[in-house]
Design goal:
elongated, alpha/beta, 18 helices, homodimer, six-stranded mixed beta sheet, about 625 residues, seven-stranded mixed beta sheet
Amino acid sequence: MPRITFLPSDISVEFTDQENILKAAMKAGVHINASCGGAGVCNKCRIFIESGQVEGDQLSDGAWRACTTRPVTDITVRVPAESEMDKKALVRPLAKKAASWIQAFGEKIEVPLQPAVRKEALDIPEPTVTDSLSDLGRIRREIGTEVHLDVDSQVLYQLPYAMRDGGWKVTASFLETAKPGFKRLIRVEPGTSSQANLAIAVDIGTTTISAQLLDLATKKVLAEASDYNPQVSYGEDVISRMEFARKADGLKVLQEKLVECLNGIVSELCTKAGTGLDSISLVTIGANTVMTHFLLGLETKFLRSQPYTPVANQFPPVRAAEIGMELPEHVRIFLAPCVASYVGGDIVAGVVGVNMNHHPELTLFIDIGTNGEIVLGNQDWMACAACSAGPAFEGGGIKFGMRATTGAVEVVHIHPESFEPMALTIGGRKAKGICGSGIISLLAGLFMTGALDRQGKFRRDLDTPRIRKGEDGWEYVVVEAEATSIGQDIVFTEADVENLIRAKGAMFAGYLTLLESVGMTLEDVERVILAGNFGSYLDLDQAIIIGLLPDIPRERFFFAGNTSLQGAHMAALSWPKYQEMITVAQMMTHFDLSDNPRFMDHYVSCLFLPHTDLSLFPTVQEALG
Amino acid sequence: MPRITFLPSDISVEFTDQENILKAAMKAGVHINASCGGAGVCNKCRIFIESGQVEGDQLSDGAWRACTTRPVTDITVRVPAESEMDKKALVRPLAKKAASWIQAFGEKIEVPLQPAVRKEALDIPEPTVTDSLSDLGRIRREIGTEVHLDVDSQVLYQLPYAMRDGGWKVTASFLETAKPGFKRLIRVEPGTSSQANLAIAVDIGTTTISAQLLDLATKKVLAEASDYNPQVSYGEDVISRMEFARKADGLKVLQEKLVECLNGIVSELCTKAGTGLDSISLVTIGANTVMTHFLLGLETKFLRSQPYTPVANQFPPVRAAEIGMELPEHVRIFLAPCVASYVGGDIVAGVVGVNMNHHPELTLFIDIGTNGEIVLGNQDWMACAACSAGPAFEGGGIKFGMRATTGAVEVVHIHPESFEPMALTIGGRKAKGICGSGIISLLAGLFMTGALDRQGKFRRDLDTPRIRKGEDGWEYVVVEAEATSIGQDIVFTEADVENLIRAKGAMFAGYLTLLESVGMTLEDVERVILAGNFGSYLDLDQAIIIGLLPDIPRERFFFAGNTSLQGAHMAALSWPKYQEMITVAQMMTHFDLSDNPRFMDHYVSCLFLPHTDLSLFPTVQEALG
């Protein structure tokens, strides 16, 4: 790989494929002005090649366009600087990422292979005149009378054929029950070889559904698939979907759309793995309380309004076919138990998925999504809360906010002198909007350069055309119209900032309220686990600067990805893990923050950047001087 | 009531309504020749009124026709007699009926009211902001955490409405499970008053289906209903129906017809009791193994041929709706467990229904129906067998055999000198055929008058036109053509006798085989319980004379009626009684007589009237002189 050395900062970095010099600069912590996101449009990312060979676009004055130029050999690049001050400003701090939880802890979790459905090969004596015990009786005799056997009625229809077709060798599927000494016979297949035992683990998110096909004999993930939750057409968030559910047939439509999507995913998984639906024995699902209700078609009317009562938090195993899933009759769905209307099975699955219930360290588990849920605790106790943070960090309620797809500004660095941005888009395409990570880096950058004050207001006196009064009040121009794919300036407004401050304030007030309720402080937190995809892109320093995450040593942070899917995965492999979920849901003390005066106090204090009390953010305080 | 005195025997009897003088004579043990069954056709039942007033038909010579004449006052009747011998012959022995088991024991059985489905009124605290536990969680809290609660998924759909519609008062239905400390919530209704808890107990016989609607709060029978088993159109007996089941859709048709009939019966029960299907919580069923398979739509192919293997003998509770019954989703069917292919749940229900499993006395339980099943034992052990007796005692395989309906000859007395019959039909209508009790009295009468020898052959040398050689060999003319409704002589043939001897021989050989297998003899039998309607009409002496029942003191016999229904009834009221059935089915040692050499030996010895070894029948031996 060629090496790039940037001047005047004299920072060098290895160039990797799929990059250009602009992206390499961002990775190296070098600022280069860039408005169009890397689409080769704005011509602002001018650089000079001092040594080495490149290929790409050279401009008339001999400069090259960083975003469309790649090194062929090791190169030295000079970024134009107008002053000594400027030279310093060209160096931006490197992004500090949270460590991967999977690498740190995940691979060490022992998940005993003990699935809820076990297949057992039985070699049954053929009946004779002197031993004409019934077909079912022969199975009972084979497994021993000390086991009390419940039997699914469909088994009675399979039995006589399976036994005779299999030459008195059958494979029996037994479902674990919560009762010691009790088993449930749910299926009998002819023969004792090549009966695969597969499971599907699913995370049903409000926006995205992700699933894995697992082999219950080898623990292997045979295939993965995901799709957008099709309910999005009926409402972006759970509240609007619950409103839709109140219409005639609304609930039915939402249920059917969801199941249809799951059927598609299951089919895709089977195609990818080259297996049939028939080998699937069980489904485990992590989903929030509202999604769980929708999946089963349960009434959400009473979940929607105070006192926000779910129909149930802990669900019996449900037959997949009963809710319309195209799976064999014996397949049961195990739903991760919920804790309350806004702390759902996805969180419980997540907590088990990261083994928090087996760790002595005080852990803060944070899932920043549409809502924002937090769990504080360790193996001995847990407190949880939903923070009603809203979807601001997913781009919701932000003027040019968008999902993290092609054309989204995903990272921005602000030049501390000129306030010129260095903006990169996903896919290097012309900008369409700003996604979550872009929003955080914008907010952090504008605050740290002093363009925004602690109240989240733009300084009106700065000599830059980027900060101006627009139709929606004061704003920062991230990308000029001509460099976008939407033909208008992409701006970041004071109203956006206000929304973000409220969102991060709700999260942070949540941490403080839970900590306070157990007589602890942020300093006591030994681990912060960031759930969801969010965490993996997050620049920790920036998230701390804006007051979204606590200012504690960075090595205590771990991003854990889709913990809900991870929990569902474990529960599929291991029935005891599903039972752990039930235990965890029961041990969690839920705090309803919507009605909590201490939360309101904290929330008000959090409506500053990063917080009213700067002593809570020592590294930010230091950086601000 | 007027009194009738019959001369010359000087026997008097009280006349009851719905009778005529012929019927009164039969009851009194007085023989009057009568061929037409009491239809006023044959004019053989001539009598003279010596005192008192009558109304009816007087014949030209001053005699009256006994079958169409009724007393108005006390009367004295002279039956014409031609000799002193004749005078004696006119007195026939009184029928000895078995005592009613219900009166002797049935009313003393304590059936604790503890149905498998219990309704519990719950008064649930309304949710508040500080107590927003889920709807299901509130139920769990109310019943206490020491109970592990399983939940039917349909409950989740009822819960939110039931709780709110009922103003937080609900009636919860809990299903007992075999697991101590475990309950299953199967239904939640709004409100806590007027929720009836009803059950249906059913006996599904091969020919007839009988059912009761029970109130599980008061133990009361609210209504009764019965119907013919509609499967009769597809075969009279289980064998021919299993043959039909092998045709395409045959099993489906049999299942659907049966369920359709059950739905009709359930509907009739509800109409009679003025209640709705909605109050029904459970169904208990006693049925033989084949009917149980048909009800569930289970394969009977392997039950049909050696080694006669049922799919199952013990069945899980089945949802009524699942097999097509028009009952609410929560209703479960509890099927009495079977023992083997031809000793079914009807027998097990019957044994529990007569409390045989709680009596120390050695009891012989006999169910003479299409097949003939016997159970020998007491509270400590039980042996059982099916005797393949065939349906001869129900009229099957008998030339003029018919069911016990209007026009069936139900009782016959043979004049020991003239061999003239005194035949009565059901309903006093012209004879159409001969039913079971008529067949037994014919066989016993013909044997005791010497018209039949011990091999079952008619004496060829008797001077009576009643015994003749017909187209099917030797026969006895019971009713002449002109006195029938079918326009031909109703006869009783030697082939009929042979069939009956084989049938009774199979039963008796069954008793002896079971007794022998436990080292006991007929004398050890302390009680004989006759199950089925059969027993209530049976003349014990006659049944013993032909060798169908053992010759032991008559007070040891009890007729118990529909014991299968009685067992289902008990199991409906009391879940422990259902569990007793499972225990009873497990404790029964089944003897497969079809393959038993000792049975074959006994059977051959039984092919005489009453038996090769007359010492087994001391009272018959004495009567024969």
